[in-house]
Amino acid sequence: MIGASLIGASGIPNWGGGSNSCSSRPETGLFALCPTINAPRPLPWGSPEFIGLGFLSFISILLTELFGSPFLKNVSIIVGLAVGCIVAGATGYIDGSSIKSAPAITFLWVKTFKIGVYPQAILPMLAVYISLAMEAIGDITASAEVSRVAVDGEEFDTRIQGGVLSDGIGGFFSALFTVTPLSIFAQNNGVIAITRCANRTAGRFCCVFLILFGVLGKISGVFLAIPNPVLGGVTTFLFATVAVSGLRVLSYTSFTRRDRFILASAFSFGFADLLVPGIFTHLFESSKVA
């Protein structure tokens, strides 16, 4: 469900040109064209040029997996991004303003803000944290499955406990840094499945690189300059891999009547929100009866 939700909320919208307001194709305003009217080559959402760029990245991943060497297969995601970016750059779809405007080195965390409590936000943010904890459980399960470790038993329960605790600590520090709670990235499950690398040392190096990219503003600007369709074509594949990991976990279950009941209850809300995302929009609004 997480993978399917991410495909609909981020993957495919970016593939079409952007997951921002341009996806609704307004007739006027900043988002009348994707990603904005100020882009180097703005186009309406879903234009064939955008679809083609995303498909180029997508098919590059597939061809690398089918015909590439073992090394190339492990970096097929990077190949997809590189091919898409090269073509996008050659055809003028890359906006270099994020690179030019980014500082060479930045240390934003040295700035301080007054710590305070906003009571009205406590319950809504608590709901967000609970939602993220539930997402973490699903992502950790999928990560364990693609890493070929146990997805049940005491060891798995300990892994879930540690993951949720780590997620909560990360959310606590997020609040101190005046940002919203951080969540576990479901894309990582797809990356593990594709690269077949579940080594923790590799994960630690990735963390170091992310911190380094946060300090070196120019490198961050390069990632921000990646066109949405290219990113969408790659992330759609990753999100689909997440969904497949979940299906594989379910396939190991010998369904009893109780298991089917639990799964149907969960899917009722999951599919409802996925297919009709606005159902809970007015949940806390006061109703007026004529």
UniProtKB/TrEMBL annotation:
Matches recorded under PROSITE patterns: XANTH_URACIL_PERMASE (PS01116)
Record localization: Membrane
Transmembrane segments: 50-68, 75-94, 205-224, 230-250, 262-284
Entry GO CC: fungal-type vacuole; plasma membrane
GO molecular function, one term: xanthine transmembrane transporter activity
Entries under PANTHER family matching the protein: PURINE PERMEASE C1399.01C-RELATED
Protein name stated in the entry: Xanthine/uracil permease
